[in-house]
Amino acid sequence: MRENFYEELDIFIENLSDKKNDYKILSYVVEELGYIPEEVKRYICKKLDIFPFTLEGTINFYPKLKNSNKKLIKICKGRVCGKKSTEILNYLEKYLNDKDEYVLEIVGCLGRCNKGPNIWIEGDIYSYNTFEDIKKILEDIRRK
């Protein structure tokens, strides 16, 4: 997640005519991050002074937000990364098959070609050489 995301989120909320419009706020989060991290849900609940089940109700009601409960993994298919992206996608689909916590997405470019191949997980971009590198990254993220 971007360093100043919460500042940007606060500014977005302040500019809303209805500052308690959780749908618009959650839509903004999905547009910016691709999913709704648990820590952002807690932040929004505290900021709006609402219960977590209220926010979950909104997420479950709107299809656009529903898949955002899952963590997003973006696999770069740009010029440098593209050679390995299909192979990595196949490995990840098999590896994550029994885990329903991730959504995989192929993207055109993550903008870090000089360090590729790259993968975007939960707002951060990681470089990798093998599938084992990605498995280690996922394990490290789970431990946090």
From TrEMBL:
It comes from the Bacteria. InterPro entries: NADP_DH_HndA-like, NuoE_N, Thioredoxin-like_sf. One of its GO terms (molecular function) is metal ion binding. Coiled coil: none annotated. Keywords: Iron, Iron-sulfur, Metal-binding. CDD domains: TRX_Fd_family. Pfam families: 2Fe-2S_thioredx. PANTHER family: NADH-QUINONE OXIDOREDUCTASE, E SUBUNIT, POTENTIAL NAD-REDUCING HYDROGENASE SUBUNIT. This is NADH-quinone oxidoreductase subunit E. The lineage of its organism: Bacteria, Fusobacteriati, Fusobacteriota, Fusobacteriia, Fusobacteriales.
